[in-house]
Amino acid sequence: MNRKSAVGIAGTLIVTLSVTSAGLYARTAQSQVAASAKHCATRDLSPGEAMRIDMEIARWQGELPAVVTIPVYYHVIRTGVGNATDVSQTMIDAQISVLNQAYNGSTGGSNTQFQFVLSGVTRTTNSSWFNAGDGTSAEAQMKSALRQGGSNTLNIYSTSGAGYLGWATFPWWYSGNPTDDGVIIAYNSVPGGSAAPYNEGDTATHEVGHWLGLYHTFQGGCARSATNGGDFVSDTPAERSAAFGCPTGRNSCTGSRYPGNDPITNFMDYTDDYCMFQFSSGQSSRMNAAYGTYR
Ligand SMILES: [Ca+2]
Ligand SMILES: [Ca+2]
Ligand SMILES: [Zn+2]
Predict the structure, then answer these.
(1) Residue 190 and residue 7: Cα distance in Å, rounded?
(2) Which residues, in sequence order, are bridge partners of residue 71?
(3) Is-catalytic flag, 207?
(4) Which residue of 2, 78, 131, 266 pairs with 85 in a disulfide if CB–CB is 3.0 to 4.6 A?
(5) What's the gap in Å between 260 CA and the centre of ligand 2?
(6) Given the residues 139, 200, 207, 239, the one annotated as active site
(7) What are the distances in angstroms from CA 103 to CA 122, 129, 131, 273?
């Protein structure tokens, strides 16, 4: 595999992510993520809500262009000018490149129709916004001040992550709260950042997957039906819980109803950045339909 060929920046940052216990436990009850994981704080849907969304997406009959270009605004939220939180233009460009490689299949997965073009970068020094948690008034204030574009525009904010690597809004939330739409990533998760083993830029890849309508591969655990439960994607094998590290051969849902090993190399799992390198074709189709329906 030739994944991550664009990632050649040496880790020159020495700032480590500071994680408070309050931040760690904020969403553990809902998401059942291990407290040590500090992964993704994207909110889970209730099974009923997920079913309703799936029916909406399934009704979409249109066809997207062969290439859908998504304009990207990258908002650097920093604690000071020129320190590690002030993510450089070079690193932002590397992050966009990682997104494009992930979504065009060149790292080994499905060639989706999405490509990403950087439209603008903003830089704001604000420690309250830098430390803003999911759903806080500081987050709302930041997005209200900075968000650009319409439903098809991707706004990425790099912050502390507030104890997580990131979180995202789903496309079906856009109409109800357009200002909230976008993706938060920890500043040190970008290519060459200090959040090893999560510093090859796949936090953004993962969060943009949510932004385009994907769930975690382990959502719903060992769901009864591959297509009608779990992550609502038929070609990602069911997975009982999030995988960490790179547990090759893991098979957490066994038996004839659950063929295949866990999709640990999928961008929508929780494995290390070097271990995740693909979207499935089912995920690609779901993103297309969700984009067509909501964006
Ligand atoms: Ca699945
Ligand atoms: Ca299995
Ligand atoms: Zn996630």
Answers:
(1) 10
(2) 117
(3) yes
(4) 78
(5) 4
(6) 207
(7) 24, 29, 29, 15
- Ligand nearest, relative to CA of residue 237: 1
Q: Are the CB atoms for 57 and 49 separated by under 8 Å?
A: no
> What is the separation, in whole angstroms, between the first and last Cα of the chain?
32
DSSP characters over the chain: --TTTT--------PPPP--HHHHHTTHHHH---TTT--B-PPPPPHHHHHHHHHHHHT------SSEEEEEEEEEEESSTTSTTS--HHHHHHHHHHHHHHHTTTTSS---SEEEEEEEEEEEE-HHHHTPPTT-HHHHHHHHHH--S-TT-EEEEEE--TTSSEEE--GGGTTT-GGG-SEEEEGGGSTT-SSTTS-SSHHHHHHHHHHTTPPPTTTTSS-S-SSSSTTS-TTS---SS---S--TT---S-STTS-S---TTBTTS-S-TTT--B--HHHHHHHHHHHHHH-
What's the 269 CA to ligand 1 centre distance in angstroms?
A: 12
Tokens of 102: 């992930």
Ligand nearest to the CA of residue 255, numbered in listed order: 2
CA of 87 to the centre of ligand 2 (A): 40
Instruction: State the distance from the centre of ligand 3 to the C-alpha of 206, rounded, in angstroms.
Output: 6
pTM for the model stands at 0.87
Instruction: Give me ligand 3 centre to Cα 243, in Å.
Output: 12
Percent of the chain whose predicted confidence (pLDDT) is above 70: 85
